[in-house]
Structures
1.
Amino acid sequence: MKPSAPLTTAKQIDPQHFAGKVLGVAVVATLIPTLALTVTLLESRPETPRAALGLILAIVVVVAGIAYFEIRKLLRPVDVLTRFVNTFVATGELIEVPEEMDDELNGLIRNTRNAIVRLDLANRELAVVSRLDILTGLSNRAFSTQRLEQDLARARRSGTPVTIITTDIDGFKRINDQYGINVGDACLRYVADVAKSCIREGDWISRWGADEFLIMLWDAKYSNAEEVINRIRHKLATSEETHDAGINLSASFGFAQYSPTESSQDLFLKLDAALTRAKKFGCGQSSSAQ
């Protein structure tokens, strides 16, 4: 599993630093009493054989060595958690915790990892939700504004023609007033699904306003936009599939081809003017900014 981005940029932890402290304490706690005992024996019993003292020191060294390796084993969970945190902070990758680790500390480490995994999943879900219009499942206006600016910049660099369509449902306020908000919501979902089914892969659609949608057509001119509009218009009029409300729906369309010399604000002024003209012509009409 690999998250979209690390949840933190905290300073990485050096497990050797912590392990060194623990081992230092263990060694000091072992050697100081032994050295004190040796000195005491030498002072109280000078006749104590040097061989006996050497044996005591050798035993101390052996015990200290055993203690060192045992402590290293006890500190393995800390190493695992450190690798987990450092890897996650550096790359966003979530490494696995060995299953054979089953004592209280290891359980705490696994629970910590699981908590980070859940937090990361929640963070990614929140990131996805923040881009979507919950009602229609399309991109919302905030996210689509950023995406559109990126696409327009790419079109300027590459010289690729792009055409934008704006559309809204005819008489949507009347539908809401006459049938209620639930019916209006069903109509919005239906039009969104129809429009989405009529565009190519690589093009995209977003909910731009209350009953307004924006369609981005990549590598498309006016004729391509007219084809998309005709498909949407035809499907709304003739599709045997129906939305929950069962109302005959139509939509008006305005469209404009982006010019690399104009700003996005100028583009939307053209789109608004084209959509306004289409609505003046009557329901189900379209108008270009040519």
2.
Amino acid sequence: MSRDVIAVYPGTFDPITLGHEDIVRRAAALFDRVIIAVAMAHHKKTLFTLDERLDLARDCAARCGNVEVAPFDGLVKDFVLQRGGKVMVRGVRGVTDFDYEFQLAGMNRNLAPNVETVFLAPAAALQSVSSTLIREISQLGGDVTPYVAPLVLERLQRRMTELHAGGYSRR
């Protein structure tokens, strides 16, 4: 019997990193379809707008044939169920991530018992990479080239130039 297993990889992706991309590739090899679900993130002040984050995620998805990108708002379990997802993919870099993600997985299982959470670890070289660190290093003038795709690097450099010139305002 053939099953079309859809996995959803949710996050803010502000910005998407090579660690995220590694998780996307791993998930794409395991599941029939993967949806990168980009959170609108009203609760966070993001560096990039939703449209910019979607664009950067689409650049990542283009490198895998079975990956698509979509925005979501509200509970991720509602998005997963609306899209016919059976699996929620979460990246785990270490013990701190695991503790938080394990709690989240338990709550999601209560809310959507038919959706499984799968934890994937990025490659060892990418385990210290987070969007927060990328933003901070970039804002302080550090080199994030080894941790983000070329398009993300270009957009980060442009945004930092705008911020330092005082010309950027959130749309």
3.
Amino acid sequence: MARPRAHDWQDKRDAILRAATVVFARDGYHGSGINDVAAEAAVSKANLYHYYANKDQLLHAVIHDHLTSIVAALDAAVDPALDPEVQLHALISALLNNYQHADAQHRIQVHDMGALPDDLQTSLKAIERDIVAVFATALCRAVPALDAERNLVTPVTMSLFGMLNWHYMWFKPRGKMSREAYSKLALDLILGGTERAMAEHRKT
């Protein structure tokens, strides 16, 4: 008979994941070990192994939790009744707001996911594709002509992610531009740029 989980199992799991996030973001995945995570979490190495069998599973869990939180935020922002441009803006804002307290997790996703074995990357990449698909659909609704030029959908969508995913490198919470102002700027840039690109594409 399987041993029942302790009442505080989830709390301890979450504490270990927070510790892993701190360690991986600070020291890099390759520059850190299970002992470092255990020390940061203030648990024994043996206790940590009750929750995660190895460092790869820890990294997978950190990224998986981050990606699923993004999916939940986007799901909450989707409203088919919204004007297409308003919907796209809502999705951009939802993503940026989700990143607000997740810079470390996002950095780990971007820089360290490739360290995982292929079988552990597969499920994470599937979630990433789902996230990209949400934005691609919203962009095609906001710029209907884009839907007819399928070869441009991916470049345009990934260009938007380029603006959003790397903002943590320069964005200052107390700077002159708020997250909401930046979400509107990103919206205007992607819509204006796409319209211009489509016009140029039609000339060729």
4.
Amino acid sequence: MKSNVYSQTVTVVGGGLAGSEAAWQLATKGIHVLLYEMRPLSLTPAHQTGKFAELVCSNSLGADALTSPGGILKAEMRKMKSLIMDCADHSSVPAGNALAVDREIFADLVTEKISTHPLISVERKNCISIPEGPSIIATGPLTSPVFSQELSSLTGGEYLYFFDAVAPVILLESLDMDKAFWGGRYGRGNDYLNCPMNEDEYGVFLEALVSAQVAPRHEFERDLRYFEGCLPIEIIASRGKDTLRFGPLKPVGLPDPSTGREAFAVVQLRQDNREGTLYNMVGFQTNLKWGEQERVLRMIPALAHAEFARLGVMHRNIYVNAPMVLDQYLRLKARTDVFLAGQITGVEGYMESSAMGLVAGLNMAAFLMDRDMLRWPRETAIGSLMNYLSDADPESFRPMNVNLGILPKLEMKIRKRPERCQAVAERASAALDCFISSLD
């Protein structure tokens, strides 16, 4: 380590999951951190305290078994000595195969660790501009309007988003291809996977859709207005029996090759990643509860056994178009001493956000030490998230959580999902062990 590293201070803006993790990683490398957190002087509509890493939604951090992508990510973060994982493990409560925490104990643990570290200084202040010098921005989905404007000016306003309307994404290999066909409307190309329904199937699907439970809105999201071009699928369906058939489920120009005739309704799927393992449901942005989404969407014949890499969401969010704005290390292309961390990078989920805090902290340390920044193995969950952020199509970029679809395929096909995840986990663990050894 060069001696001048100790003379530099990194400013971290935001004391949530990602900001706390980034600050911790820097401090454990011997680097001074100035951590700005505006709470409790200025509370967001969702937060109630000034504690670091306060969880404002569920107390569940997701699946923790190696038979799930979320469990693979957590195992990797434990190996990387993540602060968030350590505090979560020490505040866990019974939740089956998931990792859930006592949110008060969890936030208290993170706050104590951050506040008592000799290399971390905390300043309770509403940061209204991008700091000078090396900085990590981890302001989260509720970034203040003033700071958002600053970030917009730096990244380019067209690459900063404030509302997230996401359609479900499905693993291609989980679809029933005997009940679907490839083709474009009016024979133009072969890029879409079409899932036909007859009148009876459509009727059952429609009834389930309009009666399904909608996810509750947070108080700070209740004033959101839908755009007509981005309506939830359940809102369109509620306007009449045939509104979907004249909209996203329009069958015109899509004859089924098995019958030579147009179906009563057609759901179209479009490729969502370069590998062609993930397909999104065209026009299916939705605000249904996640369990309801799985139940209702599996009523579409070709989707009866669908595995969902991402379920639909419609909520307030702020994130950048990562492939356009960030380099492969989470560093702003417009300013190379500023890294982004957490949900603002374009990941979705508590642990994914924490992982990006870990990555940003370690890369900032390497940057200050004039070392090569980290290239995470593609086989790992962290590496696959990083690959998605840098290589996704900028035209269709949306936040992503960890899932099998973004991890490289296994050499041999394993049909059962838990066994497939276990094999992916073993491969990821071996790759991460080699990666960690290379850092020594």
